[in-house]
């Protein structure tokens, strides 16, 4: 007999978790594993001792029920889907913050994020020339840190966070599958590049091949025509996505542009949020004090006249004196003056540095996109449409105009308020009979006219405004631009006598000119921004529909039925499992058919060779006895049933097995099954090529079975009812989860577990 070997795989951590884990996904690039639990939290853990890095608690706005997880291939962004709000969140791996999110039309049941590995000279040159825009456009300035809610989005001073969304220039695609046949592909995880129709059932597995030629899908179709309980059967479909692969350079370019555009829209949105926060409530003080004054006073003179009298005669009525001295006070006036100045200048800075540079960059990318759309032979078949992009450019132009208008309003408001406050300050000092410094006392005729104009224009009572807003005055003109409402501005800018507007009015031809951006004098900045987002979304939609329609089903096979099991534990990491071998275009599907016996695991292999002919072969694998040493029992080979199986890499499958002997404590085993022991050379023709008109489980008797005896790549999992496994062959790690979903163990798969090594390490760490 052989000496007892060291157990294979080295255990590096174990934890009992407070909440039930429903999803696990290893990071492709680092030893990190993302988990989602029943409570709706998303957690990130390290491999070493299963230490927690961060957790993102469920949130009212985003949602509470996580149904899918996927990592961007560079490991910098984690995507998760929420079913209650139907949103997809892209989260930064460094800290639990949402960088981008979007809504979808269905609740997501599966996500797969892949990278395109195809190489071509055109692509390589595009990857290298990616930074053209960086040479031409100024770098976007960082968003300020000191505004409360934005600080949650960008905790560092740099706004490079948002640039993380762009990620690597090499094309990657996030494939989403949902209920009732919903499948969408998002390039770079942000831009919807295809909305695929025509697949029945709710999606249980997806795999897009790395050359973008085919998309394999496994769906679960609920069929309640039988009298029994609902029966679901699985079917594997293979969709031909050759439009994407034949236009790969164009798709990449277009998707990259759209990703830049989405990122910039997000940047503009955040800049606007910062502006809204720089605008403070204290600025409303003047309006509300004056309104209160109108309601309480019992003389007939208007507020405007009261102030005019003070300006011209230097004498104020007792009521106005009471308002100024008791309610506004000298101190209050100073404070109000400072608030207005600091607030207005921050808003102004944000408009100049952030909004303008963001929207200029947006114009640049949209114009490039329009250039692409005009190159019809390359881009027309992808659904790029020049007229839609034209409209988007126009909408961005209108937004820039509105931002400029806001700058002018801030400019004039600051001038007016300064002069007005300076005059009022002196008048109030006089009332309180304080000493007025001589340099404050000088007031030229010009200053007086200026203040008089300000009073005439801004201090007239407006009863209809009172009915709309509950105040008679609108002295403060900046806030209205930042309000997120559909209604018109309270006091739009005065364009009477403006020569340009008169010129436009009188020339019929210029009105229709595409070179002139339409101007919405009555609308707020938010309104114009929303309109711009809507138009851009519209022009981003079209390619997805066109490409989606080009996808057609190449093959569709019914696999097997499952009846509703008595213990309705949700089979969360469930088989069937899809894998696509990048090097040789083979799609594998792993599954077990509970109806017959779980002791076999079935491997379906779809091979597509260069002539695009497809062969589907299937084998069943059962595990011979490798735990007990007595030979005579091995006649019955049904020793183990397979609980979970995942591809570890292109050559190996990781499985969790359970002894099926009739005894009390059944051992659970974690094992590596090499495909070479399944597909040996001599039985190349032993795979069943089946009749696709019938469901696979109806012909399961004909499926050839191989019995495999594992040699050393297995380990008994003591004191653990293991049920599920998540693996990552690149990092050579696995994570086993118990059937109660709370007990986790992590292993390094390529190291043998030596007791001694661990002790030494522990000493070092302590």
Q: State the end-to-end distance.
A: 40 Å
Number of discrete helical segments: 20
> Radius of gyration from the CA trace?
34 Å
Give the biggest sheet: 5 strands, mixed
Largest sheet strand order:
18-19-20-21-25
Assembly type of the shown chains? single chain
* Structural classification: alpha+beta
Q: What form results from the Cα inertia axes?
A: elongated
Sheet-strand content, in percent, reads 25-35%
Mean of residue pLDDT? 78
Keywords:
single chain, 766 residues, alpha+beta, five-stranded mixed sheet, four-stranded antiparallel sheet, 20 helices, 29 strands, 35% helix, disordered C terminus
Describe the structure.
- Among the domains are: 1-6 and 585-755, no CATH class; 277-359 and 384-534, no CATH class.
- 35% of the residues lie in helices and 26% in strands.
- It contains 20 helices and 29 strands.
- The chain has a five-stranded mixed sheet with strand order 18-19-20-21-25, with no helix packed on it. Strands 1-29-28-27 form a four-stranded antiparallel sheet, with no helix packed on it. It has a four-stranded antiparallel sheet with strand order 2-3-4-5, with no helix packed on it.
- Helix 12 packs across helix 14 and helix 12 (386-431) packs antiparallel against helix 19.
- The longest helix is centred in the middle third of the chain and has 46 residues, at 386-431.
